Amino acid sequence: MLSSLQFWQSSRALEKIALLFENITASCKVVELIDAAAINSTAVRLDWVMHVSVTEKYVEGLYVRYRDVSANSQQYNIMTVLNPSIESHVVANLKKYTKYEFFLAPFYQTLEGQPSNSKIVQTYEDVPSAPPDSIKIGMYNLTAGWVRWSPPPPQHHNGNLLGYKIEVTAGNTLKVLANMTLNATTTSVLLNNLTTGATYNVRLNSFTKAGDGPYSKPFDIQV
């Protein structure tokens, strides 16, 4: 148990460190954000340099603040790095293909120093996470059917949609009869040369540069 003298000495030491921290961070930026780089579709690596010796215990840790720039959000998320001397950290669980702004701020106990410069970075593209929406199917005439759809909801694009793929199978055998690849501006197609009395299954997906998203459930066309 600390004696009153030891407690006083310890408190004075903490006050001295806090005062030094305030003086240093008031006169200069303690941390500089060197780089913010996406490493996949949901994570960004931050690299920084400290401009004060961490061995002097002037900096207890860093606050990492970041926000979704794509959504024009002014709400910052915050996480704490308690070992700033590593000068690197990976921020995970981010939204796919989304722009973020990052900056750092040093702290000692309840005191916070000057924020670093900021960096804006975009996470990588990924495959769509949902199939095309509002899919409708019908007959155009005795031997042709039509398919119409909308793009997946925007939050499921995960990149720039490059197009759609349509798979047509025989209803009784599920044998693939046709595969079509369409550009992103096409949201309807005519299926010709259908056989009277036959049943066909049609399903769709969308794709980005990263690859194909999930297919929709099959839709039946009864000719």
TrEMBL record:
Gene3D superfamilies: Immunoglobulins (2.60.40.10)
A Pfam family of this chain: fn3
InterPro entries: FN3_dom (IPR003961), FN3_sf (IPR036116), Ig-like_fold (IPR013783), RTP_Phos/Ushers (IPR050713)
Cited PANTHER family: CYTOKINE RECEPTOR
Domain named Fibronectin type-III: residues: 30-126, 131-223
Protein name: Fibronectin type-III domain-containing protein
GO CC, alphabetical: membrane
